[in-house]
Amino acid sequence: MAIGDVPYHLPEDFERFDRMITQINEAKPAFTIHVGDIKSGSVPCSDEYYGKIKEYFDTFDEALIYTPGDNEWTDCDRESCGSYDPEERLDKLRQLFFSNNFSQGHQPIELSRQNKVEGFEKFPENSTLQKSGVTFGTLHVIGSNNNFQSGEDALNDEFYERELANNFWLESLFKTAKKNKSIGLVLVLHAGLNYNNKDEKNGHASFVSLLREQVQDFDQPVLLLYGDHHHFMMTKPLMDKTGKTITNFTAVQVFGNHDIHSVKIEVAPENPNLF
Predict the structure, then answer these.
(1) Distance set, CA 234 to CA 24, 59, 86, 152 (Å)
(2) Which superkingdom does the taxonomy of this entry point to (predicted)?
């Protein structure tokens, strides 16, 4: 199952979120993925709130794999969110949700995390696992232009450091999938990627360029699960340099905001599209 951008509207969404978790538990998926945004852009980014979400995550009967969105750290400097330092909030998320090699959930599963790779010790949120012949990987790519600041005085140290980590991890996921002869690859991130804008101020440009290159060099289906824009959508948005659709790449945007629903993802080896 895949979910994201929930819960948003409080306190009423807590009850709706709880009902969705119950429905997911009844469906008994192998695991559930939360693509990020565990709060709206106006809910306070407090330790208490993060702790409450972790408690909800642990009510999933099976494993819950989570990657951060922008609302839970990038936007936390807003007055309505508590005027926090965004990078301090990111540190808190890493401590709370990514402090060991296991996922969230009542029956967590072991993950391989990027912070075990020399030079990338700061990035435990990027992870991977193998399941049913498929390679799964999370990447910390978010909305809000991936936290790239365009102001004249912006240093963007956080952005460039995380961009380097994400690009390294993306290449590693494809290498792992090839090495393991995976029948497919699932990428999980929060951002609704900006696929067409190559402007230097596009915080997704470098990642999209590398993604395009890697997908074209991979013979198996690639599924991207993401959120950000709060409505279910399935597209093939990646084009080659001639403008032709890259057919082995599919992007699925999960529900979110007022629409608290899950998306069931099935791996069907007998289907040429796999997912």
Answers:
(1) 21, 29, 31, 37
(2) Bacteria
Q: What is the torsional sign of CA 82, 84, 87, 92?
A: negative
Give the whole-angstrom CA distance, residue 22 versus residue 55. 14
| 32 and 24 Cβ atoms separated by less than 8 Å | yes
Under DSSP, the state recorded for 78 is S
Q: Mean pLDDT check: name the lowest of 41-45, 63-67, 198-202.
A: 198-202
How far, in Å, CA of 216 to CA of 236, rounded?
A: 13
Domains of the chain by start residue, with CATH: 2-253 (3.60.21.10)
Helices (H), 127-256: 143-146, 157-179, 205-216
What phi and psi, each to the nearest 5 degrees, are found at residue 135? -90, 130
pTM, whole model, 2 decimals?
A: 0.96
